[in-house]
Amino acid sequence: MITLLVIVALLVIIGLFLWSTYNRFIVLRNRVQEAWSDIEVLLKRRYDLIPNLVETVKGYAAHEKNTLEAVIQARNMAMAANKASIEEQAKSENILSGTLKSLFALSENYPDLKANVNFLELQRELVDTENKIQASRRFYNANVLSLNTKIELFPSNIVANMFNFEKQKFFELDENEQAAKNPVKVSF
Length: 188
Fold this sequence. Notes:
- This protein is mainly alpha-helical.
- The chain has a single domain (2-181), classed as de novo design (two linked rop proteins), CATH 1.20.1440.
- It is built from 7 helices and no strands.
- The protein has helices at residues 2-60, 65-80, 86-107, 111-115, 117-152, 156-162, 178-181.
- The chain is rod-shaped, with a radius of gyration of 24 Å.
- The relative contact order is 0.15.
């Protein structure tokens, strides 16, 4: 009889462990998805601001066609990568950030543009959005770290394998993407 009680107690403990660990994985996975959703919202906002910024710059710097085209091309690539893998999207977003830096650096040579209220407001909004994207990336990566750590730790890795929880990718710079690591060089 005591043996039966011990077995039942062990089964209850194992069941509670499985239940709580599974639920923890669900919470962590949902936090990762929420954090990614926040990034996507901010990226959409940035995509919407860029054409207005480019149009404002066009009026003052018409002969800087290559820079403006590079920004639009990078924006279109980033938007196309929106449904791609996290690595591909991170790479395209880093390229877009680099082209935006060159656009802002270009404004240094046009005092009238720097004084334009529309340009200043768009620049402020875009910088604010960039800061929010960086914060959202850090939040996303922190949640990915929590989920991946839980998946790797014993004994929760047993539950992760039983229910096919998979490690997620970090949203980070591509090691081969030197342009995103270096300062923007603008020459005229």
